[in-house]
From TrEMBL:
Stated name of the protein: Uncharacterized protein
Protein's organism: Halopenitus persicus
Lineage: superkingdom: Archaea
Length: 47
């Protein structure tokens, strides 16, 4: 089940900017950002 969370307008705007810069959909941008964040969480000593 996917969480239903509140995301600030500022944070959502940053993701929208990223999506535009990378020329990907907003959905893909969120996926990329979440996956990148999970990599950092899973491997904190490698950053």
């Amino acid at each position: 089940m996917r969480p239903n969370i509140d995301i600030s307008h500022t944070l959502n705007g940053r993701v929208k900017d990223y999506a535009e810069q990378q020329n990907v959909s907003l959905e893909e941008a969120y996926r990329e950002i979440i996956e990148a964040g999970l990599e950092v969480v899973d491997h904190p000593d490698e950053s």
